[in-house]
Amino acid sequence: MMVSDFGQIAVEEWERAAQLRPYVRLDVSVAMPNHFHGIIWVVDDDDVVGAQRRCAPTDAPNVLPRSLGAIVRAFKSAVTRRINRLRNTLGAPVWQRNYYARCVHRAASSATNGN
To answer: Does residue 49 have a pLDDT over 60?
Structure first.
């Protein structure tokens, strides 16, 4: 499948997220025709940091720095700016409101311990 220009922007900004944030490790991701899937490891020293709340909204005014919500908000904002610049539609929405997050805690250690 060929990734569209908009999909390529999302892929580039996804990869850039880890370059800008030393506490972010990226796992697998895929750009779909109308959405994006990706796995992010949020790491603080040797400890994995969880989401701010059960749902990590990107539009809440009190999103904690370095939280999953802050990372996703920055990613969506960067993608939106670049897409709108490309199509000359400054300020137009690109993403649906919010996102679906599933937090996995210590998956690697659970798998090795048989838990």
So the answer is: no
Which among 100, 74, 83, 109 is positioned nearest to 8, based on CA atoms?
A: 83
CB 54 within 8 A of CB 68: no
Domain coordinates in residue numbering, the chain: 5-106
Closest-CA residue to 42 (of 27, 57, 23) = 23
Measured torsion, CA atoms of residues 56, 62, 63, 64, in degrees rounded to the nearest 10: -120
How confident is the model at residue 15, as a pLDDT?
Answer: 96
Q: Who wins on pLDDT, 51 or 102?
A: 102
Whether 95 and 80 have beta carbons less than 8 Å apart is answered as yes
